[in-house]
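Changelog excerpt

This revision adds worked examples to the README so contributors can see how folded entries look when concatenated. The first example is reproduced verbatim below.
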Amino acid sequence: MAEISTMDRNVPGDIGSSPSQRPAGKRLARFAVRLVSPVAIIIAWQIASMTGVLSPRILASPGEILGAADRLIMSGELITGLAVSFLRVLFGFSIAFVVGVALALAAGLSRLGESAIDPPLQMLKAMPFLGLLPLFILWFGIGEAPKVGLVAFGTVFPIYLTLHGGIRGIDRKLVEAGRTLGLDTAGIIRHIIIPGALPSLLVGVRYGLGVAWLSLVVGEQINASSGIGYIITYARDFLQTDVIVVCLMVYAIMGLLTDGLVRLLEAYALRWRPEVIA
């Protein structure tokens, strides 16, 4: 019986097998099947544009979008705008990460800190933060500060909420065991609190990066002189839907790439978890 169960576990393509144990051909086939509907949509989109059913003023054809992307890349305008937008996200997210982690530690490790910090943050979280852009312009002017500030303000809440929840969700018995082993407060935070709350923090980082790019889309529409949002604003004035779609795709691709980067970091930092290894 033991030999039979062992053989069953090693059968390729078994439902319970991990993705790494499945044949490469089946994985490739499943990937090809998933591509059918997107490819069909693109073909139908191109046909509708070529036959005049879909006006270029409403939405450019896939061919025109590829041509616009090629022009923007070759001219260097897209690369320069992407670099500026990426730096805005980087600065805004860095500020939000430091502030969010500090607030979550203060509120999660202390009842007094939670009473003082959590209520106002919960109130601010309920506000539509994108609507704060006019106030940011009044406070900080029309330069880089309101754009970076909007990214930071929108991103701080996912980081704070997930890390605070992760800290509060740590088993108190682990803390007691740490004190029994002679760990002081700093040791408990380093060896118990931070590792236990790290999965929640990484979830907040992934969600926060998505919010950061969303915030930037809005922030760069206001008096921007550079960046992807500036290209969109310029294209909107001249009804260039192909350029607008290219820029929106760049935002989406950057969001996917940054999310993938955090996934790699998560796989490395949490490699002791079986679900990450699998």
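The second example, added in the same revision:
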Amino acid sequence: MDMDAIQEKLFALQDLNYRQFQAKLMPTVDPEQIIGVRMPALRKLAKELKGTAEAEAFLAALPHRYYDENNLHGLLLCARSGYEETVAGLEIFLPHVDNWATCDLLSPRAFRSHPPQLPGQLRRWLDSGDTYTVRFGLEMLMSFYLDECFRPEYLDWAAEVKSEEYYVRMMVAWYFATALAKQYDAALPYLTSRRLEQWTHNKTIQKAVESYRITPEQKDALRALRWKNS
């Protein structure tokens, strides 16, 4: 299967103004690797390709050259309905993810039913040490396990993630800010006992007080917990 055909389809959807905009948002990506395809157009293309031999050949053709190809790959992969095949595809793909935007568009359909083996898989990704694999694991823990499937130990998993990488630390803060909105009583002790490092602690509070899901009283309590330099 000629991979140039998919590249041609992507370039036919190119928006140069959007390409310039994206390049500013993603300092980890070489601008020359950005085609500039808007997400609605990319989702439409993924829907057209889903289930075709062309799509399967494309998914097997890693690494891709362009950022937009990686985004298309992620959309096709996340459209799979089978859990095992989705995880297998992610194991191959995640090491090639090199930016927050591609990472954050990944929302596997197969995870929505909360397969019993998924928490263990998320824990393995959290322990991987790879920036965007860890970020993805945190995002899945936040997306699928802060509501009816929540367990307090998942907060420990997130708190135990240690990294100097900005995109990991920001996701830890995002996770705990969301946990405060959904599981306030369980999440609050991680701030009162300073279980998070200082930057992440304060970023969690910043994001939480910006949330409409946090009550005014809770926001006042959180502001009082800001960690000031001694």
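Reviewer comment on example two: The chain has 15 helices and no strands. The chain has two domains: 1-113, 123-229.
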